[in-house]
Amino acid sequence: MNPRPTHPQHKEAAPVTARKPAAAQPPHGVRKAKPLDDADRERLLSGSHHDPHALLGAHSVRGGVVFRVLRPHAQSVTVLAKGLRAELHKEGDGLFSALLPLRTAPEYTLQVVYEDTTVETADAYRLLPALGELDLHLIGEGRHEELWQALGARPMTHQGVTGTRFTVWAPNASGVRLVGDFNYWDGTAYPLRSLGSSGVWELFVPGVGEGALYKFDIVRPDGSHTVRADPMARRTEVPPSNASVVTESHHVWHDEEWLAHRADRPVHEAPLSVYEVHLPSWRPGLTYRQLAAQLPSYVKDLGFTHVELMPVAEHPFGGSWGYQVTGFYAPTARMGTPDDFRYLVDSLHRAGVGVIMDWVPAHFPRDDWALAEFDGRPLYEHSDPARAAHPDWGTLEFDYGRKEVRNFLVANAVYWCEEFHIDGLRVDAVASMLYLDYSREHGEWSPNEHGGRENLDAVAFLQEMNATVYRRCPGVVTIAEESTAWDGVTRATHHVGPAGFGGLGFGLKWNMGWMHDSLGYVQHEPVHRKFHHNEMTFSMVYAYSENYVLPISHDEVVHGKRALVSKMPGDWWQRRATHRAYLGFMWAHPGKQLLFMGQEFAQGAEWSHDHGPEWWLMDETYHSAGDHRGVRDLVRELNAVYGATPALWQRDTVPEGFAWVDGGAAEDNVFAFLRYDADGAPLLAVSNFSPVVRHEYRLGVPPSVPVWTEVLNTDAARFGGSDVLNAEPLKPESVGAHGHRTSIQLTLPPLATVWLTPA
Questions:
Q1: pLDDT at 285 over 90
Q2: Is 419 a catalytic residue?
Q3: pTM of the predicted model, to two decimals?
Q4: Per annotation, catalytic residue among 91, 308, 419, 428
């Protein structure tokens, strides 16, 4: 049996007295109310009544007003109003009622007496719905762009009563009741009403406020019960506990200047250098507010323009790194409250650092307290089990063809950008959404209406999400992790491509091909690299098909793939040198940069979410600390020169911003190319992936530049290199080379990248 509730655990419903008052004399004419018919009574007590407000509360009838209250375990219930005090008759099973000789129902409260306490509270069932018709219309249309304002738990004052409105979408439910710490997890007295054909259930509960824990007790179509966390919860308990928490934001933002200028330049024409972070393990044990004291200054010092946070939405299993989400509207409680997370974002913005967040609309886990068969039938997942089951991760795929599900996700994207001032959404696993046959064998999938393999519902969802975010949130960028050659990932949604589809509408796309090919190249011994030269040049064949990010992400340094420096062949010096040369090549290559934490100081071990980066490698007491600090100093220098040199980012997405000087020097393991800014000012980047110094190496250069000077050399001693530099300015000679009538001779350090600009 459920424990007997005394008084709800919130300040608005504190007991008015600790002992039972003397029995009041009922007013003249108080009669017993007509009892509920057996069907209504049974449905009400079982939690399967769609309209409990029609039975409970105050209702005018012939002869007066009927008051009916459901309070299990109560000894008595008394109606209190101006000039009125009437104790209701017991009906049994926790029901109390009376017919009072009144013309209309007054504003009243209830005095509920339990064995050891008395509670006075407003009656939730005398109040009108706290959700408006416009909200219901937009929800029904699947077009409520601020869905979080309508669904979930919302503290408010309604009809002069302070409390919380609870709403949930559960169209297949036979009934819904609210359970929480305010009713000792017994929802018998807290049934919600169904609001028409919307599938939304609602109850405004007086006295419940911030910090209250709650869930929904849902009666499935077969009559069984399931207790679920709120899909729209904006705060949760700390895992492994999983109740939803009533919350309201009190954070005062101080990033007005950041937001005012965020949209000044299109992202693809601006510098974008991203530091990817797994917040729980960057400095294990730190809260959001403690991270705010360290992360912004660290990232700012290294010169990154943005951080990318691996998923922060609530997830039950830490080992999923946040990629199996159960609380799509709640920052994980592991590190603090939603306002604490806002404080971290605010702090990053005030340091001049943008915030990109990994967002996971591709799937969700099967936990029986979360979204899976939420109201007894497939709801958020596809109704076809073959379409619903994600073949790789044991999770469920969303039903993108259902307008309410699409609305849930589109509004969620907007929510993070508007409520938490997120500057970008990196959308995870886009390829798994786009293809019906993704990771499925022949016979395990069905083609679309045109006989193709494209998931047309997912295409429409991604287009709607991108269009909505870009319309509502100026300066925000969406980024696709898409690993195939899908046409038009970063093309506008209204521009139809050769395949007959409009673009998906993303701002940027991860260049998984560049990542795979370039890492494959540098992992070969230098003597073998000449046979793989095209792996470093092939990316330029398709470089302008999309707007690209070059990602060295967490996926490349975990699960046996080894840390970046450990992928490199040779001894410790050669591995670090190749690591530095690779970063120099990456920062100069067309596209934006992303580097996962720990790789900025050449951590040799794979990343572990349990203990994070090995910061001790840079401790003064460690004998090789200088080696690791040197690599970090190089990253700082790369970002500084990058940010100050528009040629490296201004024309990332157009062919006019790039030209090979020599892309065919396979025998030398050398790559030389020019980058140009919008005014035609060049930067010359040269990478030597052989372990030998190449003296008097001739490269053709534009005749318009009278003198070149070296602005970055990954072999500099301060970075841990051998200090083979081009210290003096280089003047072009009238010697033709590589299609130019002038050329320079420079020294190429071993396993190094050098950048030169006009003096």
A1: yes
A2: no
A3: 0.94
A4: 428
